[in-house]
Amino acid sequence: MNILKDKKKITPEYIAKLKKYIVKNQAVYFSKENEADSFTDFESFPAKKTDRTHLCLPTEPMLIDRSYEGVHTYCVCTISAKRKITMEIPVVRVSELENGSWRNGYFLLPRL
After folding, report:
1. How far apart are CA 32 and CA 52, in angstroms?
2. In the chain, where are the structural domains located?
3. Which residue among 61, 72, 92, 111 has the highest number of C-beta atoms inside a 10 angstrom radius?
4. pLDDT tens-digit series, residues 99-110
5. How far apart are CA 27 and CA 100, in angstroms?
6. R_g (Cα) of the chain, nearest Å
């Protein structure tokens, strides 16, 4: 998968395409190969092995499952060096996905 790491490319059109892509390709999208590692998880970095493709640095967007307006939702987010969410755009509610296909965690964003 070709990965999107530039938050400037996150447009309303991209979010609409991403939602359709996730709903249509749930099993592929939520696979281990598409998991992202946030730099904030690396207290003992580089003890945890990862590659640059899967590592999301500050200001690099990723998909995170969170509570958005009280609803369990996947949102495109960026995280600051101080572990604060600096961008949050809702994409798809977990209730819109097939039971059992969603997973907790961080996920890479595809170029669409």
Report:
1. 16
2. 7-107
3. 61
4. 767 888 888 899
5. 10
6. 13
